[in-house]
Design a protein that fits this description.
By secondary structure, the protein is mainly alpha-helical. It has 2 domains: 57 residues, no CATH class; 34 residues. The protein is 48% helix and 4% strand. It contains 4 helices and 2 strands.
Length: 112
């Protein structure tokens, strides 16, 4: 009997227990793999006369990057409403030109 057929025969509660056990087993395997790799690294470092410090990534380091996430605009051109700027990165040409004409960029800040 294939595993798919066996899973189909289980009740929802039994299936949930199987999932939880599989997750625990997977985490244990990952931990063992990490420990084996760390042991190998330390062994190689010792052979080369080195010491290594191994630290786990912090939660912030493992968080998915928000790079590319759209930010709301903070500044808007006074006449061409399609021209906006988030306030990050290089100031856009339209705003640089207005500032060069003597305007304060805060005049173009979008009210929140």
């Amino acid at each position: 009997m294939q595993i798919g057929n066996q899973l189909q025969a289980l009740s929802p509660e039994e299936l949930q227990r199987v999932i939880e056990e599989a997750q625990r087993a997977l985490e244990l395997k990952r931990k063992q793999k990490r420990e084996e790799i760390i042991r190998q690294i330390r062994e190689l470092a010792a052979q080369a006369g080195l010491e290594v410090e191994i630290r786990a990534k912090s939660k912030a380091e493992t968080k998915p990057s928000q790079r590319g996430a759209r930010l709301p605009p903070k500044y808007r051109h006074p006449t061409d409403r399609s021209l906006t700027w988030t306030g990050r990165g290089q100031m856009p040409r339209w705003l640089r030109e207005l500032v060069a004409q003597g305007h304060d960029r805060e005049e173009f800040r979008i009210a929140t």
